Amino acid sequence: MRLLIGQTGAPTSVVNASLRGFLDAAAEHDVLALRGGPDGLVEGRFTPVTAADVPVAATRQGGSWLGAGRRAVTEADLDVALDVLAANGIDGVALIGGNGTMALLHALAGRAAARGHELTVVGIPKTVDNDLVGIDHSPGYGSAARYLTTIVPDLARDHAAMAGVEPVRIVETLGRSVGWLALAATWHRDDPAHAPHLVLIPELRFDRPAFLASVQAALHTHGRAFVVVSEGAVPELTDEPFEAVNHSRIILGGVSRALASLVRTELAVAARGEVLGMAQRSAGALASDVDRTEATEAGRHAAKLLADRATGLMVGLHRRPGGTGYDPVPLAEVAGRTRPVPPRWRTTQPADLGDFHDWLSPLLGKN
Question: Which of 197, 227, 280, 363 could form a disulfide with 142 if both were Cys (CB 3.0 to 4.6 A apart)?
């Protein structure tokens, strides 16, 4: 078979491990690398690739060896892409990505079927947001969570030292429409004295009076208030395009600074808004070994599915007593859908998240 492997959307610190896993398992096939995400798919930016071409060091670094990107793909784009795939003799396509990528694959498969074009498609999950439907967790999330569980407690300790001049600090994580990363940033098992006092996630409607009251209560009890917020938790305070198709406009964050301004105005105390930004998804030095292993296995399983001509599927990750299982999930169930934080973990109080921390702990790894 002639296979194509690509990535769309943003990188993670373990996405190159998925690529290596795929190439290792597809060694008996002719494989082309898709360069530059969905633009490369439409423009036919394909180059031959083997596992030997991807440095082992790249699997321990951030970024994407394949290149990445976003595009609002039209039906005309799908037709052009199918023509390009046919011209290059491609039998199967694997794309690494999130729910937008799975929607692209599902649409590509549907368009191919309508045209009578035989094409096998398989998705390899990848997102730090952890919002893919049908799986327990996504490759990329464990490493981003590990970064946060390492960095945010240090920020809290720093804040404790500086509380006399900076009583309120608000730390902003990624998470346009879901709060999985913000919840990870509440980790405080290694240092309960420096736990965040409040967490805001998109799944809970922002309550301005309650927020200000909680900050004031933390100031009264602890002499400082340390808050974690998802970038999309309070969309009314920013003009960021959280609902944009394929998120092709850059989201710069800033809700933490808007909240800090609100605190300064309403409570008359000094407050800082801290935006953690892209380090969450790119810090290869703090990647989880568990996450890297699972990302590699997800790539391997995708290559095997293509070789078996199984199509319309995404590799799934499911926890089992003996370890992670990789049962596939139909793309139709995943495409364009978002998995929010479940109701049992929707809270503004980090002290109530012990069960979530139990769930998160195995993903953080040991390295």
Answer: 363
Is the CB of residue 233 less than 8 Å from the CB of residue 203?
A: no
- Neighbouring residues of 173: CB distance < 8 A, sequence distance ≥ 6: 148, 181, 182, 184, 185, 228, 229, 230, 231, 276, 280
Active site residue 129: yes
Residue with tokens 């009264």, as numbered in its chain: 220
The answer to whether the beta carbons of residues 185 and 152 sit under 8 Å apart is yes
CA-to-CA dists, residue 105 to 48, 110, 287, 315, 345, angstroms: 21, 9, 28, 13, 31
CATH architecture assignment, domain 2-139+285-334: 3-Layer(aba) Sandwich (3.40)
Per-residue pLDDT, averaged over 309-338, amounts to 95
Q: Which of 123, 50, 114 is nearest to 82 (CA)?
A: 114
pLDDT, tens digit, for every residue of 37-76? 999 999 999 999 999 999 999 999 999 999 988 888 889 9
What's residue 214's pLDDT?
98
What's the DSSP call for residue 63? S
- Domain pair 2-139+285-334 / 142-283+342-364, same fold: yes
Residue ranges covered by each domain of the chain: 2-139+285-334, 142-283+342-364
How far is the C-alpha of 247 from the C-alpha of 244, rounded, in Å? 5
What pLDDT, on a 0 to 100 scale, did the predictor assign at position 253?
79
d(CA 167, CA 354): 26
Q: Residue 69 has what pLDDT?
A: 85
Measured in whole angstroms, how far is the alpha carbon of residue 118 from the centre of its chain? 31
Could you tell me which residues come within 8 angstroms of residue 84 by beta carbon, excluding any fewer than 6 positions away? 41, 42, 43, 44
Compute the average pLDDT of residues 326-341.
96
In DSSP terms, 6 is beta-bridged to 95
At residue 366, φ and ψ (nearest 5 deg) are -115, -15
Q: Closest by alpha carbon to 271, among 259, 280, 281?
A: 259
Q: Is the dihedral of CA 294, 298, 301, 303 positive or negative?
A: negative
How many other C-beta atoms are found inside a 10 Å radius of the C-beta of residue 209?
Answer: 8
Residue with tokens 């191919």: 112
Tell how strand 329-330 and strand 313-314 pair up.
antiparallel
The catalytic position among 30, 53, 77, 129 is 129
